[in-house]
Design brief:
Helices cover 54% and strands 2% of the residues. The chain is an all-alpha fold.
Length: 171
């Protein structure tokens, strides 16, 4: 039987796989910036400035919102709508307005650059009753009561396959 921690780890891995697939879709064909045809692959702002300079130097370009080519480009309205559509596709329609920017997400995580390490450290803390941490059934019950914790009876089957539940949700 898998532990609840293993099941949650499996679910996190599955979610990460989906996130990687989304990055691949966003970047065209690669999970990194190597697919960009600009020379500034390591800096998004520099890449955008490169594209802007290229567009500005191509004064003979015409606007064509249907089929852009070497001498045509989308209108700013079409570009704006495509960017908005991609942002909505990444964020999802149900993303709350207070969590739809990187700054808002960072604030929600307490602006902690080491959030994962901080969280892992916090998870490492456990209830201590005595130095050996050997707890009898009554001590375990008291410790659970002290911190308002739940046991297997309250949380249900720890062998629940959350990945299967997630995959069902994707269908």
């Amino acid at each position: 039987m898998a532990t609840l921690a293993q099941r949650i780890t499996d679910l996190a891995t599955r979610i990460a796989t989906e996130a990687k697939a989304l990055r691949t879709l966003i970047n065209g064909n690669s999970a990194d910036l190597a697919a960009l045809t600009t020379t500034a692959k390591g800096n998004l702002v520099a890449a955008l400035n490169e594209v802007r300079a290229l567009a500005a130097s191509n004064s003979g370009a015409t606007i064509n919102d249907t089929t852009p080519g070497a001498s045509t480009t989308y209108s700013s309205t079409k570009i704006d709508s495509q960017i908005a559509a991609q942002i909505n596709a990444i964020l999802g329609a149900s993303t709350p307005a207070l969590l739809n920017t990187l700054d808002e997400l960072a604030n929600a995580l307490g602006d902690d650059a080491n959030f994962a390490a901080t969280t892992a450290t916090a998870l490492g803390f456990r209830v201590r009753y005595d130095a050996a941490q050997t707890l009898s059934a009554p001590q375990k019950a008291q410790a659970k009561s002290n911190i308002d914790a739940y046991g297997a009876l309250e949380i249900g089957n720890p062998d629940t396959d959350f990945v299967a539940t997630f995959n069902t949700g994707l269908a």
